[in-house]
Amino acid sequence: MKRNSAIIIVLMAVIVGLLATLASSIVERKYEVRQYRMSGNDLTQDTTQNSKWGQYYPYQYQSFLAATKEGDESTIVHDELAANPGLVFLWGGYGFSKDYNKPRGHTFAVVDTINSLRTGAPADENSGPMPATCWTCKSPDVPRVMKRDGVDSYYTGKWARHGKDIVNPIGCADCHDAQTMELKLSRPALVEALRIEGVDLERVRHSEMKNLVCAQCHVEYYFTDKETNKLKFPWDKGTKIENVISYYDDIDFKDWTHGISKAPMLKAQHPGYELFKEGIHYKRGVSCVDCHMPYKTEGGVKYTDHHVQSPLQNVQNSCQQCHRADSQELISNVMDLKEKMIELKSTVEKMIIRSHFEAKKAWELGASKKQMESALKLIRHAQMRWDYATAAHGAFFHAPEEVLRILGLSIKNAADAREELGSVLRGLGFNGVVNVPDYSSKEKAQEYMGLNIAKEEVSKKEFIKNTVEKKWLNKDNPNVDKKYIDYVTPELDK
Q1: What pLDDT does 33 receive?
Q2: What span, in angstroms and rounded, lies between the C-alpha atoms of 190 and 212?
Q3: In the 8-state DSSP scheme, what is residue 420?
Q4: Of 121, 152, 162, 175, which is least packed with CB atoms within 10 Å of its CB?
Q5: Positive or negative, the Cα torsion across 332, 334, 336, 338?
Q6: CA–CA separation, 149 vs 212, rounded Å?
């Protein structure tokens, strides 16, 4: 009898504990829902100043600002050309050979675009090297301008044309409905691509919307022509690298003609979504948000952390919600994958660089277009595969098998290109080894390519001082989030 009483007491204690936990969870959830559905807010989709959303959603907004705090990874500028000078040759003749930094957080999207040498130092709204379309993924001001001017009109003209309008960094209105807070697609290029794929957006689950809001920008894309500069995703045949290359080949598209080999080149942007779809996490229903913006609890409130960052910076709230291994073990697992990718990546980079210079030598010896056509196409395919696998920086983890497969095929394309070029060179009477110039530093590689970086940096400083600070990012511009100016001004010309 005593034994039964003891069992009953234990069971009752367990039940009470469970009920208490459930009650706490319900209260917490109700508070979260209440916070998300605060009535009477004056937000609209045209409210692009993130601090105004922050008045109603302070927890999310403060976590968003965490990326601006001193010491956060997003505040550090990593020069990728200095770290890997071979990139200057790989992108020879293209803007990326001037300037390419590791991407930072969403809060710096606008200022980093302004600082980049790739956007130049436009003398006025109708000059400069880049089209207006280059703003598309940088700011919630973009949908506002599209709505005001029309989508086609927004795309036309030069980058500097929208400088006064597009001044707030990626934020709330990019992904959320202003009244319901439901996830919302704000970029027409993704909507069009999904329509071509046959996706019914009215039936898309919330779990997939947590990927699609990211897929508005973290994708491969191109501009259809120099007149309209319309942004389009090359998904008509599918999203695997073979589909994308085939699509570009069919429409005879090229991003630029290589400055060394004269090959018709493709530049992958950041196909994060396409490669994520190939990985095990996507196939098991895990979303971008689950890992890069996990839930956190503060002051009894559970909310989505808007400090978008690598899960490795927040293992407890991201990885360890599913994986019970020690945090250092999980990080080590990821680094092992990265090292394998880097090994193949480095191999193929050296092979492609050599192929560019071997093609250059063949042209110098008098090779014909017909002799070079096949080898140049192989260079094009090799470099696009390499770029596709590495431009999406987390792809080595999102889909490691697919990334290694793509890099393996890139090595094959590069080897085949070099074999064909060797045959061409021998036919032209050259049996030696083609020398590759010293690229032990980005400065040496850029000098070889004829780039006057010092002059461009001076022009950029003057542009920021005379145009950006006086006309674009200042508190007199009614479009600017005044609180944004406080932390963005020190970042100019960084």
Answers
A1: 42
A2: 8
A3: H
A4: 152
A5: negative
A6: 25
Q: Please write down the HEC assignment for all residues of 426-469.
A: HHCCCCCCCCCCCCCCHHHHHHHCCCCHHHHHHHHHHHHHHHHH
Task: Quote the pLDDT of residue 127.
Answer: 97
Residue 132: both structure tokens together: 């207006």
CA distance 159 to 127: 8
- Cβ atoms of 123 and 468 closer than 8 Å: no
**Concatenated DSSP letters for 272-302?**
HHHHHTTSHHHHTT--HHHHHS-EEEETTEE
SS3 content of the chain, % helix, strand, coil (to 5): 60, 5, 35
* pLDDT score recorded for residue 28: 42
Exposed e or buried b per residue across 455-480, where buried means at least 16 C-beta atoms within 10 angstroms of its C-beta: ebeebbeebbeebbeeebbeeebebb
**Would you call 67 helix, strand, or coil by DSSP?**
helix
- Enumerate residue ranges in the chain where pLDDT < 50: 1-3, 10-11, 13-14, 16, 18-34, 36-37, 39
The helix-helix angle for 369-391 and 241-250 (nearest 10°) equals: 140
Q: How far apart are CA 4 and CA 6, in angstroms?
A: 5
Task: Give the model's pLDDT for residue 486.
Answer: 80
Question: 164-185: per-residue pLDDT in tens?
Answer: 999 999 999 999 999 999 999 9
pTM: 0.91
Contact 153, 230 (CB under 8 A): no
CA dihedral 14, 18, 19, 24 (to 10 degrees): 140
Residue located via tokens 């036919």: 427
Residues linked to residue 265 through DSSP beta bridges, in sequence order: 256
**Number of H-type helices and E-type strands within the chain:** 22, 6
Long-range contacts of 460-464 (CB under 8 A, 24+ apart): 460/115, 460/117, 460/120, 460/121, 460/493, 461/493, 462/121, 463/120, 463/121, 463/122, 464/114, 464/115, 464/492, 464/493
Q: Residue written as tokens 């042209």?
A: 363
Residue 251, helix vs strand vs coil: coil
Beta strands in 33-159 (DSSP E): none
Measured CA to CA, the distance from residue 8 to residue 2 in angstroms comes to 10
* Ramachandran angles phi, psi of 463, nearest 5°: -65, -45
Residue 131, phi then psi, degrees to nearest 5: -80, 165
